[in-house]
Design a protein that fits this description.
Blueprint: H1 2-25, E1 29-36, E2 39-42, E3 48-49, E4 53-59, E5 66-75, E6 77-78, H2 110-140, H3 147-161, H4 167-190, H5 197-215, H6 218-230, E7 238-240, E8 244-245, E9 250-259, E10 265-276, E11 279-291, E12 298-302, E13 308-312, E14 318-333, E15 336-346, E16 353-363, E17 368-383, E18 388-390, E19 393-396, E20 405-420, E21 424-425
Parallel strand pairs: 1-4, 3-10
Antiparallel strand pairs: 1-2, 4-7, 4-8, 5-9, 6-21, 9-10, 11-14, 11-20, 12-13, 13-19, 14-15, 15-16, 16-17, 17-20, 18-19
Helix pairs in contact: 2-3, 2-4, 2-5, 2-6, 3-6, 4-5, 4-6
Length: about 425
């Protein structure tokens, strides 16, 4: 029993550790963008941590007025190897409007037509009053929550429609009545042989009102007033997006701010955030400086005894070569990568390749400059084993005209300066 209890406790602690760490890993961090005088300023200037959860927070806005849309996509930077998104529609229903007798579709008296026309005009006027109330509220609280204006709007709506809770339903019924009237009045005239001019006038009125309904979203006005009332006491002056997870080398975030009332797009911009952490491979080209990897130039000098001394030309053995370097890096910061690499370079002086292994640092976001150092190997001419030596140095027998040599790989330090100016987001 005791061993089982111990095992359970160990696993419980391990599970708790995972839960706590996962909470830290995906704890949401905010990237703030401040709106001020219709200008948008990104206040977040740091790198994003890889595999972390972030949200866009837009401040200086009225949440009842604005809609924030954010989409994020992560990209990997690949350097080429060198050559070595409908508004809600309220559709007309199939039922006749209240007040119209669907069983007969008859107007028995002239007063019926007049009353029907008055009802249509009354409903349209009520919808227009709703729009005007919403317009005034919008103008008075465009960028901040105005409690006094909201209370005035709610009071006017209560006298116009009743309780605010039932406002969408009642507005929807008004819209349905007008839309259905146009359909049923047309059917009434079609099924009666004698044309009634008064009914035709009411039909024309209902069709005109239907066109008005297509150009104005009265349900949206109702929703705006309700949303404003809900946020009245919240004090909120910001919008927060859904979280997104950072991956790969960078995260491209599209931020769209829409005025939900006027439908205008106030802000539409792509922001690129560079991630820190994680590893990758980068290819770059550049120049590499070495010392001691060029061939010595030998010449022969005759001694007094006839033997031939082997002399070395006094020349600098520092040279540079042009080549490519591949780095496997870790991103310490958005601007700084560090890691091992290998490459190959060719000297323009002797055409021989230099094989490079070392450490490289890359500086930059997408266009990067690198500095590398390490060991380079190249084939260098060495004196042959047939060369003799004495106290005067290496020599050859008399009458020898050439210096025997062979090639051997030799190591030496190198310093490289590399760059890549083209990186593809994938």
């Amino acid at each position: 029993m005791k061993p089982l209890l111990t095992l359970f406790m160990k696993r419980g602690i391990f599970l708790l550790f995972i839960i706590l760490n996962s909470g830290q890993l995906y704890a949401q961090k905010e990237i703030e963008i401040k709106r001020q005088n219709d200008k948008f300023n990104l206040l977040f200037k740091k790198s994003l941590s890889l595999d972390s959860s972030y949200q866009i927070k837009l401040t200086g806005v009225n949440p009842a007025h604005h809609i924030l849309k954010v989409t994020a996509k992560s990209f990997e930077l690949q350097t080429a190897q060198p050559e070595a998104f409908k508004d809600l529609l309220f559709l007309s229903g199939s039922l006749p409007p209240v007040g119209l007798k669907s069983d007969a579709l008859l107007f028995t008296q002239a007063s019926d037509i007049s009353n029907y026309q008055d009802t249509l005009i009354g409903k349209m006027n009520r919808l227009e009053k709703l729009r005007k109330i919403a317009d005034i509220l919008y103008k008075q609280s465009k960028d901040t929550i105005n409690k006094k204006s909201i209370d005035t709007a709610v009071d006017q709506i209560s006298r116009l429609y009743g309780k605010l809770d039932t406002l969408p339903t009642l507005v929807g019924l008004d819209i349905h009545y007008i839309n259905s009237s146009a359909t049923y009045l047309a059917a009434y005239l079609l099924n009666n042989k004698n044309l009634n001019p008064d009914v035709a006038n009411v039909l024309a009125l209902s069709q005109y009102q239907t066109d008005q309904l297509k150009s104005k979203n009265y349900l949206e006005y109702a929703g705006y007033i309700i949303s404003s009332n809900k946020l009245k006491d919240s004090g909120k002056k910001s919008l927060v997006s859904e979280p997104f997870i950072t991956k790969k080398d960078l995260t491209e975030v599209r931020i769209i701010l829409i005025d939900r009332y006027s439908k205008d797009t106030l802000y539409n911009n792509n922001q690129t955030f560079y991630n820190k952490g994680g590893s990758g491979i980068s290819f770059s080209t550049g120049f590499f400086f070495t010392n001691g990897l060029t061939d010595n130039a030998y010449y022969l000098e005759k001694r007094s005894d006839g033997k031939m001394n082997i002399k070395t030309e006094n020349k600098s053995r520092i040279d540079f070569s042009v080549g490519a370097f591949a780095q496997y890096y870790y991103k310490i910061d958005k601007m700084w990568r560090l890691g091992p690499g290998l490459g190959i370079a060719v000297s323009p002086f002797d055409g021989k390749p230099r094989y490079l292994v070392g450490l490289s640092t890359l500086i930059g976001k997408e266009k990067m400059v690198g500095v590398s150092t390490g060991i380079a190997w190249a084939k260098v001419k060495q004196l042959s084993g047939s060369v003799l030596n004495d106290n005067e140095g290496p020599f050859l027998p008399a009458e020898t005209t050439t210096v025997p040599t062979f090639e051997k790989f030799r190591p030496n330090f190198f310093i490289g300066l590399t760059y890549n100016v083209v990186a593809t987001r994938k």
